[in-house]
Amino acid sequence: MRKFVMFITVAVGLMQTSCNKKLLEYESDDVRVEIAEGEEWLHDFPLFLGIKKKNPPQIAIWIEDSSGRYVSTIYVSQKIATEGWLSANGNRRKEALPCWCHSRGVRYDDGLFCPTKQQPATDALTGATPREGFSAYFREKTGLQRYRVMVEVNHSTDFTDVYAEDAAPSSPYYSGGKEGSGQPALVYMADVDLTKQSRSFTASLIGHSSPDGSDGGIYTDMEGIDSSLRIVKQITIRLK
Amino acid sequence: MKRIALFTLGCIFFQCSFSQNFVEKLRYQTEIAVGFPLPESHGTPKWLCQKVMYELNPRLMCGFGAGISRYDKTLVPMFADLQWSVLRSRRFTQFVEARAGYSFAPSPSASGGSNIGLGIGTSFRLSDAHRIYASVGYEYQYFCQLKTFESAVVRSRFVEKIGHNALSATVGFQF
After folding, report:
1. pLDDT, mean over chain A
2. Which of A141, B34, B90, B159 has the fewest C-beta atoms lying within 10 Å of its C-beta?
3. How many CB atoms lie within 10 A of CB B116?
4. Across the interface, which of A11, A74, A135 has its CB nearest the CB of B78?
């Protein structure tokens, strides 16, 4: 009986050490990037034997100065930061978030700009993309008064008739083949100006990335892009 | 007066016999486990647990346990546990096990979440009161952790929500 009482005492003691808690306080000088999920936030990703898995999108958030020079990454999804792709069959997925990859400007041994398993992105905050909208907080330390918050978002294998699975590699709509991107990554941008009174800035869609990930450009022709427009409902940048 | 004395003696006798029965049916289990993460989960989780089980009948035990588990953060799991012996108790006895509970996070940068586990295993009788056992199974643990990155240019923060899936291998001792 004594053992039983001791067990209960230890168990209750351990329960007291912690509880469900708020992990993140919105501190002064913090900038909050709020990403509200859209209808297509979760996308069916084929695994095997017709089994599909609902995956959240790949996302990168970074800042550039007012002239478009890369400053720093705020957040990037774990899969692209560590080359942790599922069922990629060796595909490096350079078409996943090419705008972020090229803006960051780190070229790896194979000539691509995507981080590798051996050399993951260590210059940024990484984590699993939440299954619903989320917020990332940052504080810019160099005193920039005007900067751009850039957000790139993409789903794998969201093919359409235009960005088709069987598009030839020479086609402008080729997006990596069977394990590729389908519709290309979309790029949103918000101009943040700390000299103004506004405490809130809404990011707007400025185009899509290179479908096959071969460059870091932003393209404004939106033909064939459909469901990926609904991955994100709204992106708001708020100043404390 | 005589009635009161008899009633009191009866109560004491009942209490003693019940307690004796209850205690005799308690089993204590200590176990360690290691997890092998499934795709999209990372890290190698480890658990150290103490359980107290009550023998409902010779083939079914229920109880609860607590311990320490290590993911990216240290967690304190508390759970209810059910063990069913597939065959009657012998030198080697196969069993199936299911557990569910909640893990608390002592770290200020983590928040706990629910856990579940399923397993099959075999126990080996060392004596009437002592057994060792081994099992394999599946473990799921949900938790949140604050991630922070700081450089000369920026400090960024984000709350990561993790549903960790793993296959598990467990060894334990029952006394």
Report:
1. 87
2. B90
3. 14
4. A11
Q: Is residue A3 part of a domain?
A: no
Q: Is B84 on the interface with A (CB under 8 A)?
A: no
Q: How far does A42 lie from chain B, in Å, by closest CA?
A: 15
CB-CB under 8 Å, B157 with A137: yes
**What values do phi and psi take at B97, rounded to 5?**
-140, 145
Q: Is residue A73 part of a domain?
A: yes
In a domain, A17, yes or no: no
Which residues of B are less than 8 Å from A14 in CB distance?
Answer: 66, 76, 78, 104
**CATH number of B26-174, picked from 3.90.190.20, 2.40.160.20, 2.30.30.40, 3.10.450.50:** 2.40.160.20
Contact B107, A17 (CB under 8 A): no
Burial label for A93, CB within 10 Å (0-12, 13-18, 19+), is buried
| Strand residues in B71-112 grouped as ranges (E) | 74-85, 92-104, 110-111
**Residue A14: per-residue pLDDT:** 47
* Closest Cβ–Cβ partner in A23, A63, A124 for B159: A23
Report the gap between the CA of A7 and the closest CA in chain B (Å): 8
Complex confidence, ipTM: 0.80
Q: Is the Cβ pair B158, A84 closer than 8 Å?
A: no
Report pLDDT digits (tens) over A74-133. 999 999 998 888 767 777 889 999 999 999 999 999 899 999 988 998 888 898 888 889
Which of A19, A74, A130 has the CB atom closest to B154's CB atom? Answer: A74
Domain count, chain A: 1
Which residues on B lie below 8 Å from A20 (Cβ)? 111-112
How far out from the chain centre does Cα A36 lie? 13
Domain that holds residue A71: 26-239
Instruction: Please say if the pLDDT value at position A7 is more than 70.
Output: no
Neighbours of B163 (CB within 10 A): 14
